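Late entry, flavin-adenine dinucleotide complex.
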Amino acid sequence: MTATTTPVPPAACDLAIVGAGLLGLATARELLRRQPGLKVAVIEREPDVAAHQSGHNSGVIHAGIYYKPGSLKAQLCVTGASELYAFCEQHAIDHERCGKLVVATDASELPRLDELERRGVANGVPGLRRLDAAGMAEIEPHVRGVAALHSPDTGIVDFPAVARALAGEVVAAGGTVTTGCAVEQLLEPAGGGVELVHAHGRTRARRAVVCAGAWADVLVPRGASRGGAAGGSAVGGGAVGGGAVPDVRIVPFRGAYRVLREPRAELVKALIYPVPDPELPFLGIHLTRGIDREVHVGPTALMVAARDAYRLSRIVPADVAATLRWPGTYRMVRRWWRTGFDELRHAFSTEAVAKSARRFIPEIQAEDLLPGPSGVRGQAVGRDGALIDDFVVSESAAALHVRNAPSPAATASLALARSIADRVERALG
Ligand SMILES: Cc1cc2nc3c(=O)[nH]c(=O)nc-3n(C[C@H](O)[C@H](O)[C@H](O)COP(=O)(O)OP(=O)(O)OC[C@H]3O[C@@H](n4cnc5c(N)ncnc54)[C@H](O)[C@@H]3O)c2cc1C
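Prediction complete; structure with ligand written out below:
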């Protein structure tokens, strides 16, 4: 990695950040740019930065089409994408504005495609245009469908390289990044500030920001001066952008990819997506030619038994217990059991994945698909069983907690970091 890590976090600092994914690192960088000289310490459990979602995703710079106008996702994705492109240019990080098609495969999907177009225009997505079958064939000759949206501003990037560059900037600005150091507890003493108990001892800070991804609800403050709603934790305050904080827990959803083998990979030039179900925060099985030129088909969306279930067989009893203790889990399953069965089929049957991919590219067969990588989404689920769609950041006495940062939070990381930094600055005074 480009940044030199500090083996042990400092005993004291102004701001402690838990998690060296894209959000933790972008937040540290943003605050150091605003306040040079601020003592900022990033503490990460894994030996490297971007070890979880930030390094196990589709690698797509989303243009901002899908999101409900006015939502944080809508506000932060479009600006975040343009800032990310500029950051990649500045740091010579591999990226490409390759464009993407969202394809309606039959007339029944057209009303939803219309709605996506309306949202994309409302969100200010650059260059969005509607294509008929002939128009989409010019861009992706093997695609079949009745209509599509073309987003020329959607791109691909090496997100782990972005994280390494962010870590490099943090260190260059005088911050520290410590990897291989799990934060075990976050204490909010009555006298103010925050104390992080971690693998190398303790770090006191005036304020903390917890960007723990799929572990967002594990590290909750004890002894906080302000109570909150989240099941015994002391998390209260408002979501970024205002509004009430939903009572949420993380339920891990594994996203597995298959790789389209050569020479069949030539069937896909760039990015091909279905029209998604607007009720779900997942985008459906899509085809993405990554920055490494491999074509990935996926991801699946299967509820799993560990927050780091990169293998389907991985079980972490504490994660299973947390999922089963949460009333929202049962309400979600009751509502989405049919989708759950489809996802089980995608997880265990390559033919089921090939069938989904064949809706756009009829040539794809199961034997063209090889096992590929996987990621695990830290998806917040409400007490009522709702899959929380928007970004959520809540506040306890001396800490901000990123409670839900699903896709497109990697794209939006620089912009989301700015909203988090605004709140940290207000709190630091
Ligand atoms: C399958 C999949 C596909 C996706 N595709 C895209 C995409 O194409 N484009 C896009 O924009 N977004 C995508 N996303 C979403 C995106 O990856 C995430 O929104 C983003 O990476 C979140 O970053 P983060 O920093 O919040 O979380 P993470 O990257 O998960 O980082 C959290 C970090 O906190 C650390 N941590 C947790 N607990 C502790 C602790 N107690 N002590 C110390 N460290 C701790 C973890 O080790 C981890 O490194 C995808 C996600 C998945 C899973």
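The mean pLDDT is 91. Will revisit in the morning.
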